[in-house]
Structure formats: structure tokens, C-alpha cells
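Look at one such:
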Amino acid sequence: MKASLHIAQDPTADEVLSTDAFALLVGMLLDQQFPMERAFQGPAKILDRFGTLDPAKIADADPEAFATLCATPPAIHRYGRSMAGRVQEVARAVVADYDGDAERIWTEASSGTDLIARIRRLPGFGEQKAKIFTALVGKQLGVRPEGWEAAAGAYAEPGSHRSVADVVDQDSLDQVRAFKKEQKAAAR
């Protein structure tokens, strides 16, 4: 995987996201109840502190030590200890189902529906997160199995600014934030 992602708005974190499929997956996992760019900075923090993003090594790490590493300020998430457990669960799933190669989740998907199903089987990934991630790999990595746009729904719309799938720079991040703010206000 080699892309030029600018999701985290931090050169080091974006380089990690651009070159490591598991990092991208973990960033998406952390993108909840936490500012988007900070969530996507989490994988770089894990790499810096743990020394690797190898799913097998993360899966096998001592849970308490890994949780402490993830919760140490600046933490990978506002709920660093809890999210450390989820990161390890996803790592275990990637090891068990994809021989530790996270990129296989999307590169081997036979269709958009299959891609959504593969993502939804991961711990911590519901329907909406699966659609957003499908749009992210479709729009920014060019991974477009047949039917990916229909599977991702509105998140796949060209020119939209609904989610992390649309973040390519500070301006697009600001537009996504504005969209989310509008959605929250409309839901009240």
C-alpha cells in the first residue's frame, strides 16, 4: 500500500497511514467520540511507542502493558485503555482471517457488498463505519470492487464532504467538520 493520505494533518502520522494498511484500519477504528485527525494520529503513536504495527505482535502484546502505552498522554484516544483493547481485538481478527495482512481485507474483496461484509466482521466496525471505510479506500486508494459506490452509499458521492473519506487537506477537513456539525444540529 502506498498512497499519499493527509487525513491526520500531521506529516509523520500521514506517512504511517499512507504506507501501512493496519494503521489505516486502526485510525478508522479510533475515529469515534474523538476529533478525526487525532484519531488518525493514533497509529503513529502506537508505532512510536510499541515499535511496530505488526498485527501479530499487537495481538500478542500483554493487554495491560499495551493499554498503558495507548493511554499515556498524549493518548491514542480519549478512552485510550478501552481503545487499546479494541485495537488488539482487530489485530487478532486480522491475524486470524487475513494472515496478518490488513490490506487483504479490501484488495481481495469480490464486490462492494463483500467489502462491507469483511469490514463489518471486524470488532468495533458497524454498518456506518464500514460504509465510510469502503468510501475511504475507494476514493483515496482507488480500491473499487464492483458495486463499491452503492455499498458505501452517500459516502461515495464525488465532491461530497461527509466523512474522513473526503479529507485530503485542511480545507476538506474543515468542510467535513461543517457537514457533521450541520447533521448534529438537524438531528436535534
Summary: The mean pLDDT is 95. The CA atoms of residues 56 and 96 lie 9 Å apart.
